[in-house]
Design brief:
With 690 residues, this protein is of the alpha+beta class. It has 17 helices and 19 strands. The protein is globular.
Length: 690
């Protein structure tokens, strides 16, 4: 999982729609720094991630029921909805995701606030640049990528990180451990099987009940939904055509400006390349599917073909595939009573006795011919298996090359767009902003179109099911018998999975403890040893006298212990992710860490060691710090890893507030400023890097 962006709208101190925060995700410069004073919104950004993904908040996030920006509420009219949302983007296993969680609040006539339910929406990005709604529930997809019980180890408040070692958190730690072992998946399977068994038992009782009228009513309702969606799809297609025309007009205006003519022509060439690469990538992926569909089965027959050759060789050794005179030929001679030489073969004669003895030595021509023919077919299967791997590898390499080329083209396009946005010529920058708005509208329409297409697909499947149900509403004993067999099979699966779960839960703890000890010794100067009890309580002990004794650890030591534990957790998550990998599935062991104030109670040496260690913990970092936390020793260790930087400018409603600033790369950036409208709010400013 590699985070790409976060965008907020009326979320806590962030008024209106904020600029999208693009997160660094390079191999070397993988760190995004966000600077802000206390109360400016650092914790809100941290919780923006967890709210979208899990609808959870950190302990320091007060008044969780008050998510909507106060200024936005104050400026709204009674009954007018105020939108609050956070949208994040990420990539996982070469698939792009966007997830948005939002809610609405209303003021009534008495100025009381009424809050609606939150809603989570997810989109998947295709190789063709289009977005669609996934078949699975968003919560299920998120759980498969990074489960809820693990999120606190990847999104955490550094000032309260030592809470991980508290004994009251042992249940959460144990829950995380079960995920590493695959036990949570087994438990989920058992739960689903029990639900399936209950459903089967209900079906067993109700088979044959007539529900035709209800099904017909449901069919009519779905037909109306399909008609409505098709009408909206037509409207979207028209709107997309209009937007493409607008985009072409604005692009041509940019091209006519001599100052950026060359740059605009380059962009149009790059856009053409991008479209071509997307088309080629889609075609190559289809080719790979065809290869797998046509010859993928051959790689699963290796053991079978080897077994056939073993049987074939054994039959030849035993003489059962003897070449020469066949049993069928000898049997024909005996039936006719005369040999090909003219001798009498009537039963009881001396010649009959000798010819009949040939039956024991002769083989069956039918068996021999069949075996030889099958041997040739087996050889062909093995050749096809080799050819399959060669072609599959070739297509996979082609897909990888196309992705790399596409990423490079998109990077160049982003650079050009950024250059045009910041152009000192106001006409150029305004045209680019207009293009950004058009692109945003096109993206929004594509998402809606993808969601509608997905919904139509679901409705069609549902309609087909309804039609079948309507035509098959009758009771029969055979269905009841089948339902009973399914119930028995489900119960057997539950018992077997329970046994596997019980065995796996008796392992693992010592491996995790050893890794925590290794990482703790790298960071801390103390001789203390981390321990994990059988109940998963995390503690420190010393062994200076040869006898282990508990240590009354300081807050700083507990922070180091907690970070060590998090690092161990991440290692195990990577191992767990590797185990999930299957044939031709790309690496999924990439995970981010988002940390709010990770240097809280540490001394200078510990701060330096933590700052040095943090970039090693994960493939991507988002660090939220105050000016005082961004000290020399921290900056020296992290500066070479920084790819993106942002400053949170807090506008205080306090009269005559004391202004503050931070100096970055020789430039001054405001941290606290006086609000001119009587409301407190926060702006996001990107730091210009040399």
């Amino acid at each position: 999982m590699r985070l790409t962006s976060i965008k907020l709208c009326n979320f806590r101190s962030f008024y209106g729609k904020t600029p999208e925060i693009i997160l660094a995700n390079g191999d070397i410069r993988n760190t995004t720094m966000i600077y802000g004073s206390n109360g400016a919104g650092k914790t809100s950004i941290l919780n923006g991630f967890t709210w979208v993904l899990y609808e959870k908040f950190s302990a320091a996030f007060a008044s969780t029921e008050q998510l909507v920006n106060k200024r936005a509420i104050a400026e709204s009219q009674p009954g007018q909805p105020v939108e609050c949302s956070v949208e994040i983007g990420w990539e996982h296993e070469n698939i792009r995701y966007r997830a948005k969680r939002g809610c609405r609040v209303y003021k009534n006539q008495s100025d009381l606030i009424e809050t609606g339910k939150t809603q989570l929406t997810m989109w998947l990005g295709g190789d063709d640049g289009q977005w669609k709604i996934p078949n699975q529930l968003p919560e299920e997809i998120i759980t498969q990528i990074l489960p809820l019980s693990l999120h606190q180890y990847f999104f955490f408040d550094g000032e309260r990180i030592e809470e991980i070692v508290r004994s009251h958190n042992k249940a959460e730690i144990a829950e995380a451990i079960r995920i590493f072992l695959g036990v949570e998946v087994i438990e989920l399977s058992i739960k689903h099987l029990k639900e399936a068994k209950k459903s089967l038992e209900t079906e067993f009782k109700n088979i044959g009940d007539s529900e035709t009228k209800q099904l017909l009513t449901k069919q009519q309702k779905q037909e109306l939904e399909i008609e409505t969606i098709n009408k909206r799809q037509t409207e979207i297609n028209q709107e997309l055509e209009y937007q493409q025309v607008f985009k072409k007009e604005v692009s041509n205006k940019l091209r006519e400006l001599s100052a950026v003519k060359e740059l605009q022509e380059k962009r149009q060439n790059l856009e053409s390349q991008r479209n071509s690469l997307r088309s080629e990538l889609k075609k190559t992926r289809e080719n790979l599917k065809k290869v797998i569909s046509a010859r993928g089965y051959t790689v699963l027959l290796t053991e079978t073909t080897a077994k056939f050759r073993e049987i074939f060789t054994d039959l030849k050794k035993r003489g059962e595939l003897t070449a020469g005179i066949s049993r069928e030929f000898v049997n024909d001679l005996l039936n006719t009573g005369r040999c090909i030489c003219g001798a009498d073969l009537r039963e009881g004669t001396h010649t009959h006795f000798h010819v009949k003895n040939l039956m024991r030595k002769a083989g069956s021509s039918t068996v021999e011919e069949t075996a030889i023919r099958m041997s040739a077919q087996v050889d062909e299967i093995d050749k096809q298996a080799v050819a399959f791997w060669e072609e599959a590898d070739r297509e996979q390499l082609r897909i990888q090359q196309l992705r790399e080329n596409l990423n490079q083209v998109e990077l160049e396009l982003t650079t050009i767009e950024e250059q045009l946005r910041k152009d000192p010529n106001e006409e150029i920058s305004n045209l680019q902003k207009r293009l950004d708005e058009i692109e945003s509208k096109i993206d929004e329409l594509n998402r809606e179109q993808g969601a509608n297409h997905q919904e139509l697909s679901h409705l069609k499947i549902s309609m087909d099911t309804l039609i079948k149900q309507i035509s098959k509403q009758k009771q029969n004993e055979e269905k009841q018998f089948l339902a009973q067999r399914r119930i028995n099979a489900t119960q057997d699966a539950i018992e077997r999975l329970s046994e596997v779960k019980n065995r796996q839960e008796n392992q693992f703890r010592l491996q995790l403890e050893q890794r925590v000890q290794e990482i703790f010794s790298e960071i801390s100067f103390t001789p203390y040893i981390p321990k994990i009890s059988e109940n998963y309580e995390l503690s420190l002990v010393e062994n200076t006298t040869g006898i282990e004794a508990p240590v009354a650890a300081s807050t700083g030591e507990n922070q180091i212990l907690s970070l060590s534990f998090i690092a161990s957790i991440i290692d195990k998550v990577r191992e767990w992710s590797e185990k999930k990998k299957m044939m031709m599935v790309p690496d999924s062991s990439t995970f981010p860490i988002v940390m709010d104030s990770p240097f809280g109670s540490l001394d200078a040496n510990s701060r330096r060691h933590i700052a040095r260690t943090i970039p090693k913990l994960a493939n991507q970092l988002v660090v939220l710090v105050t000016k005082t936390q961004w000290r020399i020793e921290v900056e020296e260790e992290i500066v070479d890893k920084i790819g993106k930087e942002y400053v949170l400018v807090y506008y205080s409603s306090k009269p005559n507030c004391e202004q503050d600033f931070i100096e970055l790369h020789g430039e001054r950036y405001s941290l606290v400023r006086q609000s001119l409208n009587g409301f407190e709010y926060t702006e996001i400013v990107e730091v210009e890097r040399n």
